[in-house]
C-alpha cells in the first residue's frame, strides 16, 4: 500500500490545495493531509478550525485522512508508514523553497521520496496569505476557497460586525 502525506498549514484551505489533494489521492492508496505547525506563521483560523474545514472540504474524497502534527514532517511520515511526500508547486519561488526543504528531509529520511505536483493554471497565483488579506478586508472569495471556508469566513465577519 502506497501511503503519501501532503503537509501544509492550510490557513485557509484554498481551491489550489483541493486540486492537489484530489490529484494526490488519485495516485496514492491512502493520502494523509497533515496540518503542520509553522512557528513563523500567524494563523487566521485555529488548528481545530483548519482541521474541520479540511475535513468538510475533502469529505467526498476516498482514502483521504485529515490530521495535524507538531513535529518534523519526516517523523510524521515514518509514524504513518508514508513513503511519499506530496508538494504542490505554483511557481519557481515555490520550487526553490521546496527544494531546500527536500534537501533537509532527505538527510533526515532518505527512504521518503518527495513528489511535486504543478498547480493547475487556475490556481497558480492563489495563496493562503492572499486569501487571508482578502478575508481581512471583506473581499470576494467565490471560486478561490471551498464552500466550508466561505461559510466560516462569513460567520466570522458577521460576529465581528456585531462585536465591534
Q: Which descriptors apply to this entry?
A:
single chain; 164 residues; alpha/beta; 5-stranded parallel sheet; 6 helices; 46% helix; 19% strand; globular
Structural notes for this entry:
The radius of gyration is 16 Å and the shape is globular. Helix 1 links the parallel strand 1 and strand 2. It is an alpha/beta fold and 164 residues long.
- Rough shape? globular
**What's the gyration radius in Å?**
16 Å
β-strand number? 5
Strand content: 15-25%
Tell me the strand order in the biggest sheet: 3-2-1-4-5
Largest sheet: 5 strands, parallel
The run of helices and strands is EHEHEHEHEHH
Distance between the termini: 52 Å
* Protein structure class: alpha/beta
User: What is the percent of helical residues?
Assistant: 40-55%
Question: Unreliable segments (pLDDT under 50, ≥5 consecutive)?
Answer: none
Mean pLDDT: 94
Summary?
The protein has six helices and five strands; from the N terminus they run βαβαβαβαβαα. The chain has 164 residues and is α/β, with parallel strands linked by helices. A five-stranded parallel beta sheet has the order 3-2-1-4-5, with helices on both faces.
Amino acid at each position: 500500500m502506497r501511503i503519501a502525506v501532503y503537509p501544509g498549514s492550510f490557513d485557509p484551505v484554498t481551491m489550489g490545495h483541493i486540486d492537489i489533494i484530489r490529484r494526490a489521492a488519485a495516485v496514492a492508496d491512502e493520502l494523509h493531509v497533515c496540518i503542520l505547525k509553522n512557528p513563523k506563521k500567524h494563523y487566521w483560523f485555529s488548528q481545530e478550525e483548519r482541521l474541520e474545514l479540511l475535513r468538510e472540504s475533502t469529505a467526498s474524497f476516498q482514502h483521504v485522512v485529515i490530521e495535524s502534527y507538531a513535529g518534523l514532517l519526516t517523523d510524521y511520515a515514518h509514524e504513518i508508514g508514508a513513503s511519499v511526500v506530496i508538494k504542490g508547486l505554483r511557481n519557481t519561488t515555490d520550487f526553490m523553497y521546496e527544494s531546500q526543504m527536500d534537501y533537509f528531509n532527505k538527510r533526515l529520511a532518505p527512504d521518503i521520496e518527495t513528489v511535486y505536483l504543478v498547480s493547475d493554471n487556475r490556481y497558480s497565483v492563489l495563496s493562503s496569505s492572499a486569501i487571508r488579506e482578502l478575508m481581512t478586508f471583506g473581499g470576494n472569495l467565490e471560486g478561490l476557497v471551498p464552500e466550508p471556508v466561505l461559510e466560516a469566513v462569513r460567520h466570522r465577519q458577521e460576529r465581528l460586525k456585531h462585536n465591534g
